[in-house]
Every structure is written in structure tokens, then in C-alpha cells.
Amino acid sequence: MKFSKTRPVKIVMLGAGGTGGHIAPHLYRLLYSLNRPVRFILCDGDVVEEKNLVRQNFTPADLGENKARVLAERYSTVFGMETEYVPSFVEDKEHLNGLLEPDYLWMRQPGHEYNVRVPELVILIGAVDNNKSRQLVGASSISLAPPQKAAAGLTYSAAPPLPTKPKDGFAGAPSKPSEAGSMGKGGAKE
After folding, report:
1. Model confidence at 111, in pLDDT bands (50, 70, 90)?
2. Which of 120, 127, 64 is CA-nearest to residue 90?
């Protein structure tokens, strides 16, 4: 698949906690390096609690603040980028579909003498910690037929079907205990 190097990009990330909080700085750095219009929208209705400080990308100064707002303000300031955030949980299809709706920008495109109306390439990242939100993300990605996704600036690819019955235990499980190895402190085989 070939993507335009100039097409505007819009990334919507649901979740700004344990996973999203660590994705955000890297994504901001990537978007900063792109030579194209970009939008990054962080969505999370949760606030920073003391228990989050151990494993999430927050500091004691962030306690009691909305997670999406903290990350959006921190990294938009660091990288000098405009950013957007939604300080609430995205819990229904209509809200999510509204966020995924691409904007159109008038841009100069190769092969065109005048500016043309170009839709954003929309990317949805689900960095959520509950099954209901995961199902919402999954349902939003299959609710549009492929031609509609293409018109909306969304990419579509079909995943291969999952096996109905794993051969030995669960999928990816070693067939013998000796193949598993022991997991050390860093999570790698010793």
C-alpha cells in the first residue's frame, strides 16, 4: 500500500494511562518530525492518582489532574505543537465516530495546478484498560465498509482468521516445559 507523504494525519488515542501515557511522548516526537499537517487527540476521563505514579508516565505534580490534559499540555509545550484532548471517557459509538470524522484541508498536491481538498488520514489507537472500550474500538473499525473507510481517509486491511482450536494448550505456548525458560527481572529469557 502506498501513502501520500503530504496528506494530513489525525491520530485519535483512547486512553492516557499505563499504555497511552508511554505511547504519547514517542508519538509526539514522530508527529513533530513529519513534514505535514498533523493532529493528535488524546482522550481519557480519568485523573492521576497516587497509585498511578509507580507505573504510569506522571509525576506527583500531576496528582488530581486529568490524564489526557496533563499529557497533551506537557508534550505540546515540549514540541511546540498544537494539541487536543478530550477530558472524558469515550463510551459510545456516536462520540467515537465524531472524533474519527476526518477534516479536509486545502493543499497543493503533486500533479495538480491548484490546491485540492484533501481528507485527513485518520488513525485510531486503543490504549484502553477495559473490555467495553476495546469492543468499542473494534466495533468502530469494522462498522464502516471498506469503500466508506477509504472515502473517510481510513485504511482497511483484513486480518487472517484466527484458529478455532489451538494445537497444544493456548496459541503460542511451548510444547514442552523445558522450552519455556525462566523469566528474569527484565522479562527476557535467562
Report:
1. confident
2. 127
pLDDT at 143 exceeding the cut of 60: no
Residue with cell 499505563: 18
Residue 128 burial (10 A CB sphere; 0-12, 13-18, 19+): buried
Cα–Cα dist 8/6, whole Å: 6
Burial class (CB in 10 A: 0-12, 13-18, 19+), 118: buried
Closest CA to 52 of 19, 14, 29, 97: 19
Residue 1 domain-assigned (yes or no): no
Chain segment 150-161, per-residue pLDDT in tens: 444 444 333 334
What CATH number corresponds to the domain at position 114? 3.40.50.720
Phi–psi pair at 25, nearest 5 degrees? -65, -35
Single-letter residue type at 73: E
> pLDDT value at position 127?
95
On whether residue 97 sits in a domain, the answer given is: yes
Three-state SS string over 87-103 comes to: CCCCCCHHHHHHHHCCC
- Report the C-alpha gap between 78 and 46 in whole angstroms: 23
Could you count the other beta carbons within 10 Å of the beta carbon of residue 110?
Answer: 7
Q: Which domain holds residue 110?
A: 9-162
Q: Is residue 98 part of a domain?
A: yes
In a domain? residue 119: yes
Which residues, 6+ apart, have CB-to-CB distance to 60 below 8 Å? 53
When divided into structural domains, the chain yields a total of: 1
